[in-house]
């Protein structure tokens, strides 16, 4: 008879005596009450003033009901506009309060600042509707590399410079393939992805499991990776490109728990037995 809807005796805030809950109020203030001790008005006490609802409202079962002109979880904010108007001003175009990226205070959104410097956060707008993180190919809060370096980020959308297209300006117009076709072709049978920009240093893991044979060929038009996963099977080949640009330099890769660092010249071939390989590369 003393269990609440969660099957907890007296909400863990009292003891059951003869089928009835006796709530624990050691301070004698009666702030814990209810049939199952489910109401705790201590939740209404403001940490700074130590008053119930900051003295500007009434508490019922742990919730503050504020007087006119006051709002907040503990009626701590004074505001001259109605609650309806507060909600209207903070509602984003998609119907969410501050786009679920901020806090509404008296009709104004305070956006969550994800920029650790505190200067100008990646989230902004009257209702926090703009999220600049959407402009980054790989989100890194310490990087200012928006739109792959080929466009301007405006309210979370990339406006690409001439010669570039794609959601994040990652695809050159000079490439005869569409973004989708380019991605599919780059993956090939081995599922290796296109990666990075052609004019910057990048790195990628080629694979993480052991291979008996691995050959990397750098030529003027493409970079080939050929590996034979199981002895006696047909070697698999993949071409590595960056946004349809051929890669022409490989700086290092690891093998047999050691590291080989070198610049691979055009038409050079490297044959090694690898446990794991990764490459750092630059474009033409």
TrEMBL record:
<dbReference type="InterPro" id="IPR015812">
    <property type="entry name" value="Integrin_bsu"/>
</dbReference>
<dbReference type="GO" id="GO:0008305">
    <property type="term" value="C:integrin complex"/>
</dbReference>
<dbReference type="GO" id="GO:0007229">
    <property type="term" value="P:integrin-mediated signaling pathway"/>
</dbReference>
<dbReference type="Pfam" id="PF23105">
    <property type="entry name" value="EGF_integrin"/>
</dbReference>
<keyword id="KW-0325">Glycoprotein</keyword>
<feature type="domain" description="Epidermal growth factor-like">
    <location>
        <begin position="144"/>
        <end position="169"/>
    </location>
</feature>
<feature type="domain" description="Integrin beta epidermal growth factor-like">
    <location>
        <begin position="4"/>
        <end position="38"/>
    </location>
</feature>
<feature type="domain" description="Epidermal growth factor-like">
    <location>
        <begin position="44"/>
        <end position="75"/>
    </location>
</feature>
<dbReference type="GO" id="GO:0033627">
    <property type="term" value="P:cell adhesion mediated by integrin"/>
</dbReference>
<dbReference type="InterPro" id="IPR057243">
    <property type="entry name" value="Integrin_I-EGF_CS"/>
</dbReference>
<keyword id="KW-0245">EGF-like domain</keyword>
<keyword id="KW-1015">Disulfide bond</keyword>
<keyword id="KW-0732">Signal</keyword>
<dbReference type="InterPro" id="IPR013111">
    <property type="entry name" value="EGF_extracell"/>
</dbReference>
<dbReference type="InterPro" id="IPR057073">
    <property type="entry name" value="EGF_integrin_2"/>
</dbReference>
<dbReference type="GO" id="GO:0098609">
    <property type="term" value="P:cell-cell adhesion"/>
</dbReference>
<dbReference type="Pfam" id="PF07974">
    <property type="entry name" value="EGF_2"/>
</dbReference>
<dbReference type="GO" id="GO:0007160">
    <property type="term" value="P:cell-matrix adhesion"/>
</dbReference>
<keyword id="KW-0677">Repeat</keyword>
<dbReference type="GO" id="GO:0009986">
    <property type="term" value="C:cell surface"/>
</dbReference>
<protein>
    <submittedName>
        <fullName>Integrin beta-like protein 1</fullName>
    </submittedName>
</protein>
<dbReference type="GO" id="GO:0005925">
    <property type="term" value="C:focal adhesion"/>
</dbReference>
<dbReference type="GO" id="GO:0005178">
    <property type="term" value="F:integrin binding"/>
</dbReference>
<dbReference type="GO" id="GO:0016477">
    <property type="term" value="P:cell migration"/>
</dbReference>
